[in-house]
Each structure stands twice: as structure tokens, then as C-alpha cells.
Amino acid sequence: MFFRLFRALMPKEERFVELFAQHAVKVHAAAMALEDMMADGADIQVHFKRICTFEGEADSVTRQTLQALHRSFITPFDRDQIHKLITTMDDAVDGIEEVAQRVDLYSVTEFTPDMRALATGITECARLLIEAIPLLNEVSKNADQINQLCDAIGQQESVADKCQHEGLRRLFATERDPVKLITRKEIYQRLEKVSDRFDDVANVIETIVIEQV
């Protein structure tokens, strides 16, 4: 209790939220590029390079955040939570790149409606994250809104679970080529895993709210 009061009265390194916001923009850009990659007639290589670029830019923001954390004595909220938030956000964009890498590696050029729905859900999670992050500048004031946005990310993750299940069910029922079966199965699983990573991010944000309110 004393430390919380002490921390509230001391000057803070407010740039952390700015860095989180910058990272969220990169995650969203990568998610939109993944959607573009799965569109009919898309140039896979063009969008793959875009995703890799956004992932690299997000990594740079992650390094800046960790360096700022190392330098700062007083932080806007718990140091462990700052570290966990930026690393889970980075896991999300890494997951997007991993999907794109598999698409490129397996030379996939056709995508099912379920795959596209999963990609759309990832973009929506990223959009919700962009909306939630700036609210961390005033956690107590914005607690309800932050929690609502985190709940929405959790709902998207639940939708992704069902979408993956239906997609895999249809895949196993219709695909006779064993190579295509294995590679498409992996793409489904990696798409769903990205949604899990966004849910992890939402859980970290909710923990920050609990600790600050």
C-alpha cells in the first residue's frame, strides 16, 4: 500500500504507453497484411515482405521498451507487467509472421473461408488493442472501458476456437492429398494460436487494471 502511494506521487516514465501504442500499430498493420495475403489473386510475396517489415519494426519498439524499462526507476505500473505486456504483444506479431512464413514455405495460394475468417478475427483483435492501449495512461478512470475491450478480445479468441474447429473438420472431410492436409492443418493451428496470443495480451492488461484500481 505504501509503495503504491509512493509510486503514485513520484514522476513517472510515461513513454511506456506511447511505446505500447506504437507497437500495437505495427501489430495491426501486420494483421491487415495477413488478410491481404489471403485475398483472391493476392501477390503472396509482396504481403509476406510487408508482414516481415512490420514484425521487424515491432521488434525495434520492443527493444526500445525494454531499454526504457532498464533505465527507469519509477514506472507507471509494475515493472514485471510492463515487461510481460510488451513481450506478449511481440508474441502476437511473431505469430502473424509465422503464419505468413508457412504460407510462403508451403506455397499456399488458395485459402478457405475459415482461414480468412480467422485472419479477419486477428485484425479485429489488433484493432481492439489499438483502442485499449492509450487508455492505460489513466487506468483508474478508464478501467471499465479497458475491461470491455479486453472482454471483446477474449470473445474473438472464442470465435477463433470454433472457426478453427469447423475449418479442420471440413479439411479432414474433404482433403485427400496428405501433404495439403498436413500443411493446411498447420496453417489453421497457427492462425488460432495468434488469437490465443492476443488473449494473453488482454489478460496482462486486465491484471494491470486490477493492480492499479
What topology emerges from the helices and strands here?
Layout: H1 2-9, H2 15-37, H3 44-71, H4 79-105, H5 113-132, H6 139-174, H7 178-212
Helix pairs in contact: 2-3, 2-4, 2-5, 3-4, 4-7, 5-6, 5-7, 6-7
The low-confidence runs, each spanning 5 or more residues with pLDDT under 50, are none
CATH topology assignment: Methane Monooxygenase Hydroxylase, Chain G, domain 1
Tell me the distance between the termini. Answer: 12 Å
Beta-strand percent range: under 5%
Tell me the number of structural domains.
1
Could you characterize what this model shows?
- The chain is mainly α and about 210 residues long.
- The protein has a single domain (about 1-210), classed as Methane Monooxygenase Hydroxylase, Chain G, domain 1, CATH 1.20.58.220.
- It contains 7 helices and no strands.
- Helix 4 (about 80-105) runs antiparallel to helix 7 and helix 5 runs antiparallel to helix 6.
- The chain is elongated, with a radius of gyration of 19 Å.
- The chain starts with a helix and ends with a helix.
- The mean pLDDT is about 95.
